[in-house]
Amino acid sequence: MTDNHRPDEPDPTPVAGPVEQAYSVEKQIDLSQKSYSQGQLVVRRFFRHKGAMVSLFVLVFITVMAFTSIGYGIIPNWWNKTFYDAGATVDGGRPTLQLWPFQIGEHPFGQDTIGKDYFALTMRGTQRSLIVAFTVGLLSTIIGTFIGAIAGFYRGWVEAILMRVTDLFIIIPLLVLAAVVGKMAEGIWWLALMLSLLTWTSLARLVRGEVLSLREREFVTAAEAIGTGPGRIIFKHILPNTIGTIIVAATLAIAMTILLESALSFLGYGVQAPDTSLGLLISTYQNAFLTRPWLFWWPGLMILAIALSVNFLGDGLRDAFDPRQNRTAD
Fold this sequence. Notes:
Layout: H1 18-32, H2 38-47, H3 50-69, E1 98-99, E2 102-103, H4 118-154, H5 156-171, H6 174-184, H7 188-196, H8 201-214, H9 218-225, H10 230-238, H11 243-267, H12 278-284, H13 294-321
């Protein structure tokens, strides 16, 4: 075999230099790693937040127990006592629940002053408080998002009118306004609707600020240049980029509503007897704090557990949606 390459000529076979070798190694590394979309990264970050996962479990557990134990609507009950039937007081109405050795007993949360099962009463109060909190959280988020988006996008006199209305709601103390509308409301759903009309202001200001910033971005300018209508720009292009802020604000609104509804019911302006809520239970049995403290413990613990769980969920969602968070292994 004849070799046409002469000794005095350079070898035509390319030799991989350090640049080519580094590029090939980086390419192999990139190919070996799985790529994730933005939504998948958010989900991964959220499920890696330990505090959020514990809070989610606690909130789901409380919600399921409240709605299934004594039933609600078409949901059957598994607890054999109701929140409205009185009976004979056993052992002074003390709770029969024991952690060691574990025992539930006949009345795990005890009995009230007239012999009603306090577990059933607490679950009923938890139901009503959760209904108000999540309804207000959903409706106030929708109202605040809509008003904030319209004000931030159109600006001018539209923004001036909407923001002055928002300022008018803000300068009046929320508890005073809520007490007035709570006294007017008839039923749990009307109370939730009335509170929704009062608690949207903070989210409206947040969304307005986000929309004002996004309004000047190139993708909005490009959408306007091709003739896209304002409604499509707002709901299809701008609001999806504010979803992180909206979700976090919604969770905080739920936690705030739990405390607001409890305060209103405690003052007598929220849920009215013969129905009950967690705040109303505390208000009803406040005079029994020294003689029967468990009548305070259980509704208070429920309020605390729900409020803390929702707040920790908000922290987890904020960390998941914030791209500036340092994550070494997304």
